[in-house]
Prior knowledge:
Largest sheet: 6 strands, parallel
Helix content: 25-40%
Radius of gyration: 20 Å
Structural class: alpha/beta
InterPro entries: Asp_semialdehyde_DH, Asp_semialdehyde_DH_beta, NAD(P)-bd_dom_sf, Semialdehyde_DH_NAD-bd, Semialdhyde_DH_dimer_dom
Subunit structure: Homodimer.
Protein name: Aspartate-semialdehyde dehydrogenase
Strand content: 15-25%
Bound molecules: adenosine-2'-5'-diphosphate
Number of strands: 14
Order of helices and strands: EHEEEEEHEEHEHHEEHEHEEH
Strand order of the largest sheet: 5-2-1-6-7-8
Shape: globular
Number of helices: 8
Distance between the termini: 15 Å
EC number: 1.2.1.11
Amino acid sequence: MKVAVVGATGAVGEVMLSILAERKFPADEVVALASERSAGSEVEYGNRKLTVRDLASFDPVGVDIALFSAGGETSKAYAPKFAAAGAIVIDNSSAFRQDPDVPLVVSEVNPEALNDIPKGIVANPNCSTMQLMVAIAPIHRKVGIERLNIATYQSVSGTGKRAMEELGKQTADLLNFNAAEPSVYPVQIAFNVIPHGGDFLDNGYTSEEMKLVWETRKILGDPSIQINATVVRVPVFFGHSEAVAIETREKISAAEVRQLIDQAPGAELVDMREPGGYPTPVTHASGNDAVFVGRIREDISHPRGINMWVVSDNIRKGAALNAVQIAELIANKP
Ligand code: A2P
């Protein structure tokens, strides 16, 4: 099996390569691709080094699985070419997520969507949607979800490597009494929070907020779920957090939700109701695979309301890990 990683020098691409090696994905050959800028440089694949090749001049014939994480425009331009050459493309960008002929898959939640891949392209959900699905799908299956109200606290790695460098540099500059220069984000990110992710849309929401709406409905196969989201960028390097308020169709107790989370594949319950007895990006999510759930409690303002706090490594489960898990499901198909 020949595997290509497109965007191999990026924040997600690097982790895709390390997870492929860590999980011993059955690849005979792995090709690292990026732009012309980084062609010839080296990236790590387990304890080996791969020389990065230029995507634009690469011939995709012979590639079985291509993992794309090089931005929407690159996916739009190259994913159909890889698919036409016979590869199954697993695309981490938002380019194809809304296409009805492209399955949008969270490996533990809707793997059956991989039974039909008409365009040869599978979409990996947005990182915030990903961790939300692992946490709420068991509740939706048990009692039905009527409405979700979500506030996110998203780390800068979700924006890419330059954003991580910006947070580091601004922090150092400010601690040295120098001015912080915003470049990737419109305002200072160090020691600040920014209520903005993606582009502003006509309805006043941002594109990152509307992804949570569209993607949740598609993955759970239920267009009737009402969703309201506020996306916020916080000065954290790895790990997105979400405060999630759920209104269910039938009443469910906090104890029952705790039990569901405890048994849910990909989820880990961290809910001790004491100082530190909850997940945070630094103590739990960063560098780990699970979606961590805590602060589960019944909503005192709603008869069928449940609150929870959901934290996960946005680069691992939120992007690279789920893409590799999809690749494993495809590789293991009879
Ligand atoms: P490069 O390093 O050559 O620019 P991040 O999300 O961390 O910013 O990473 C984006 C990834 O997508 C990088 O690997 C980057 O490669 C790659 N990339 C961006 N634009 C293109 C392009 N036009 N063709 C191929 N790869 C691209």
